[in-house]
Amino acid sequence: MRMQESGEMYLETILLLTKKGGDVRSIDIVNEMGFSKPSISRAVNLLKKEGYIEIDGLGRITLTQKGLETATCVYDRHQYISKLLKKLGVSPDTASRDACRIEHVISDESFDMIKKYVENELEGD
User: Is the pLDDT of residue 97 over 80?
Assistant: First the structure.
C-alpha cells in the first residue's frame, strides 16, 4: 500500500534538500514548501512515527532506508513523467507541475511503461 500524496511530497522535499547539501531541518521544509510551521511539524512527526525519517537532538532530519526508497521512487516518477511531457511539447514549468500531481496517482504498470519508453526512445535524443 502506498502512502498518501502529502507524505510522499514531504519525503521528496527532504530528499531534494539533502541533495542540495547541508543539514535538513523543519524550517528548511517550511521554506521550501511554503506550508506553516505547525503543518510541517505534524507531518514530520507522522513520518518519524511511521519510520520514514529520523530526527536527531539538534533537529536534523534524515531519511531512513524506508524513507529514502519511497522518496527516490517518487522523485524518479517525477523525473520520467516530466521528461515525457516536455518531449511532447509541454513547457518545462507546466511539465514539472503536472508531473508533481501525476507522480502520486499513476499506477505502477503505467509508470513502468513510461519509464521504459523514456529510457528506450527519449534518452538517445
Answer: yes
